[in-house]
Amino acid sequence: MSRFTPDRSRSYHPAAPLDRSHMPADFSVSLKNYTADHSVRIPNDFGPGQQLAGFDPDYRNIVDYIVRITHRIWETDQREVEYIGDCYSDDSIVYDDYGLQTGNEKIIADTHHTTGAFPDIILDAEEVIWAGDDQIAFHTSHLTRIIASNTGPSRYGEATGANVSFVVIANCVARGNDIFLEHVLYNTSAMLQQLGIDLWQEAERLVADPPPGWPRTSVVWDQLREAAAPVKALSESQPVNHFDPDAFARSVHDKVWNGPGLNGLRTAVDENYKPGFTFEGTTERLFTGADAYRAYVSELRTAFEDLQLQVDEVYWMGNDNDGYLISTRWSAEGTHSGGSIYRKPTGGRCQIWGITQWRVKDAKIEQEWQLFNEFDLMMQIVKARNDN
């Protein structure tokens, strides 16, 4: 690839919300097409072309951009971590598991740290849901699987030699070759568990010596929720009289997580999920079917009996004939008041946020990938217990 320097003459903040016209109605530009030849992970030339004003001309479309910058930064034999400076803006804003990180220099430093701990790291793209264009900005939800061996020291301790495999979901907003807003959830609890680290002991340690950005303030929490979110849901501001992915995502999340009682949960799952659907989630949760899903949701709702979840942003690609890929970013607040999943209740108020990807056909969910900030949540609970 040639060296490309983006135009840094202006900031793109704040990110403008999307409307219906920005949702691709088919899968012509999609990861499935990108990786049609499964023997080649990173094609040299991927079409169709897409208008990418201000982007490095090496990239054919937004999926090509997302997949190849990830590969270029993390994986190539001549790993180009410094290339982050060309594809993240100087004033980039990143909301991660621990809080708010600002500027591309912080991202570069964190990436050097991770590649030092996991020198053989692979980030294998499993899905990219996108919407938008090069004028309002592209919004992308990138599901990728990290596969690596821990042969170097990290912020979590000395090398363990353990192999790890866990998913990450990064929701990015990019314009002019610059990612300037990102909500990213690493499955930190799964990674730590695979490294052989006790989650509660590590939470205790990090509460005493917190990472940058933790704990997030109420201001940062509000900004995390509001960033790129529409003032009014598209299902209200731009209603349609056929299947609406926005209305569907908001309704299902509300009924599953906020609805009354276990009977309401049972009905919501039975009505909106296909029998035998698959789920992959935080801290190595991997299961099939409604019973396991209801047990998972019930466990969390029991721990936070007053949980109130809101949907912050929805975008999608697809149509009724081919089905849909839907990305939903959501956030919730609740009091740690019950259950045993997070040990003895503390009465502390907690912040929970997550990203969900769905594959939907005939108005039914066939597959779900969902990450939320579970290790950060455990740290919040430890802090609440210490403060009591």
Query: Total domains, how many?
Result: 2
Distance between the termini: 56 Å
Order of helices and strands: HHHEEHEEEEHHHHHHEEHEEEEH
Q: What characteristic shape results from the CA principal axes?
A: globular
Please state the structural category. Answer: alpha+beta
Using the CA coordinates, give the radius of gyration: 20 Å
Uncertain stretches:
none
Multimeric state:
single chain
Q: What is the strand arrangement across the widest sheet?
A: 2-1-6-5-4-3
Count of alpha/pi helices: 12
Biggest sheet, in brief?
6 strands, mixed
Number of strands: 12
Helix content: 25-40%
Strand content: 25-35%
Question: Can you walk me through this structure?
Answer:
- With 388 residues, the chain is α+β, with helices and mostly antiparallel strands.
- The protein folds into two domains: 20-222, Roll (Nuclear Transport Factor 2, Chain: A); 232-387, Nuclear Transport Factor 2, Chain: A.
- The chain has twelve helices and twelve strands.
- The chain has helices spanning 31-34, 62-74, 84-87, 104-117, 188-194, 199-208, 218-226, 234-237, 245-257, 261-272, 290-303, 374-387; strands spanning 88-95, 100-102, 122-133, 137-149, 163-175, 178-186, 273-281, 285-288, 308-319, 323-335, 349-361, 364-372.
- A six-stranded mixed sheet has the order 2-1-6-5-4-3.
- A hairpin with a 2-residue loop joins strand 5 and strand 6.
- Helix 10 (261-272) packs antiparallel against helix 11 (290-303).
- The longest helix is centred in the first third of the chain and has 14 residues, at 104-117.
- The termini are far apart.
- 42% of the residues are buried.
